[in-house]
Specification:
By secondary structure, the protein is an alpha/beta fold. Among the domains are: about 230 residues, 3-Layer(aba) Sandwich (Rossmann fold), CATH 3.40.50.970; about 25 residues, no CATH class. The chain contains 18 helices and six strands. The strands form two sheets. A four-stranded parallel sheet has the order 1-2-6-5, sandwiched between helices. A two-stranded antiparallel ribbon has the order 3-4.
């Protein structure tokens, strides 16, 4: 995809900040009649650990003051970051909600999937809601790294009323209780509410599981970042959970699993193509208009071809060698000599002075030019100046101060 275009932000924290100012600029274009951006929105997909970056939250107040209702943050709250839990002993979603509400944002929380609705409807005493609110994020991560029986004992079993709610449920039913970020209907409802909000930006806090559907060796485990390949049993479980029609024979040993395509006439593929056509194309297109730079001659790299001896060569080393060789270096890596103004205190060009009134205009102008250049002050020159000032104070007559007269 040589012409693919995307919004590059690179480091964590720059994405939220760039999204806010992009939405603000879109409003600027629309309000001044430069371009109709009323149907455009800026969507920023972020991580819960990323929100700890200073840049992520530094401009939240600006977005609220500017009423950027064309801006939507979707924070993937999977409760994990590269080096462990985001808030092991706390609740990051509640923390982010207070942060965004305080800044003036519209907050939509998608915490529990619709399979929890049946249990919540039976929770007349509020025992289940209280249990959810009292359980820290670290425990929720432990539950999804274990099994349905573990959740029954260590989550629902902490209160007799909640244990009664799932008394007739199997361990598999308990294990299949989804979190809100994996419930497509609830996420669609959250997106719809965000689009219909006016007068303020919106943030969607979606609770998810890191490594969802990848099997027990990946889901909610801190080692997920370092695990780069699925084992054969994990591949089979992934295939079964997503209902992908690939046989065991096609999987083989799992080293090179096949790609699956539903077919050009399938309902899913036809729907996706139709949506992309309505959105203006398959992928954003880059349109470069920059002029091509002239390529350096072949002899430029002769110094690099000679090698570096026993030391391994690097790109920085090669470019440095090219830059040091002025004659063979290309124009873009030559360093042009810097012209310096003649110093007024060098021995080779003594500072001209006008000692008589009848000095020529040239000498006077030269003297005035040279006097504007100050000699750098050293410790010795500073000592001489302080001594001179002390002597002048001793020789000067004292200043008589008259008392102020009273005003009438």
């Amino acid at each position: 995809m040589p012409w693919f275009w995307q919004f590059p932000t690179v480091s964590m924290g720059l994405g939220p900040l760039s999204a806010i100012y992009q939405a603000r600029f879109n409003k600027y274009l629309h309000n001044r009649g430069i371009k109709d951006t009323s149907q455009q929105r800026v969507w920023a997909y972020l991580g819960d650990g990323e929100m700890d970056e200073v840049e992520s939250i530094g401009a939240l107040g600006l977005a609220a003051r500017e009423e950027l209702d064309n801006l939507v943050f979707v924070v993937n709250c999977n409760l994990q970051r590269l080096d462990g839990p985001v808030r092991g002993n706390g609740k990051v979603i509640q923390e982010l909600e207070s942060l965004f509400r305080g800044a003036g944002w519209n907050v939509i929380k998608v915490i529990w999937g619709r399979k929890w609705d049946e249990l919540l409807a039976q929770d007349r005493d509020g025992a289940l809601v209280n249990l959810m609110n009292a359980t820290p994020d670290g425990d929720f991560q432990t539950y999804k790294a274990e099994s349905g029986g573990f959740i029954r004992e260590h989550f629902f079993g902490r209160d007799p009323r909640t244990a009664k709610l799932v008394a007739d449920w199997s361990d598999d039913q308990i294990w299949n209780l989804q979190r809100g970020g994996h419930d497509y209907r609830k996420m669609y409802a959250a997106y719809k509410a965000a689009v219909e909000t006016t007068g303020q930006p919106t943030v969607i806090l979606a609770k998810t599981i890191k490594g969802h559907t990848l099997g027990p060796h990946f889901e909610a485990r801190n080692a997920t970042h370092q695990m780069k390949k699925l084992a054969l049993e994990d591949l089979k479980l992934f295939r079964d959970r997503l209902h992908i029609p690939i046989s065991d024979a096609e999987l083989g040993d799992g080293y090179l699993p096949p790609y699956y395509h539903p077919g050009p006439d399938s309902e899913a593929f036809t729907y996706m193509l139709d949506r992309r056509r309505r959105l203006g194309g398959s992928i954003p297109e880059r349109r470069p208009r920059a002029a091509a730079l002239p390529q350096p001659p072949a002899e430029t790299y002769e110094v690099v071809k000679r090698g570096s001896g026993k030391q391994a060569v690097a790109t920085t080393m090669a470019f440095g060698a090219c830059s040091r060789t002025r004659r063979s270096a290309p124009a873009w890596c030559r360093s042009s000599p810097t012209r310096r103004a003649p110093s007024a205190w060098t021995r080779s060009s003594p500072r001209p002075r006008s000692t008589t009134r009848g000095a020529s205009s040239t000498s006077r102008s030269t003297a005035s030019w040279s006097s504007t250049i100050r000699r750098p002050r050293t410790a010795r020159s500073c000592t001489r100046e302080s001594t001179r000032l002390a002597r002048s104070r001793r020789s000067s007559p004292p200043v008589r101060r008259t008392p102020p007269t009273a005003s009438r």
